[in-house]
Amino acid sequence: MLSPILSSRKAFTLIEVLISIALLGSILVPLFSVVEL
Fold this sequence. Notes:
mainly alpha
């Protein structure tokens, strides 16, 4: 009964990592554009 919980938890962490990467990208792109200017 532990494997389904661990697999679902692993899926949730993957989704959270993807969301955090997308947020970091949306924040870093404007910063890099400002630095280039």
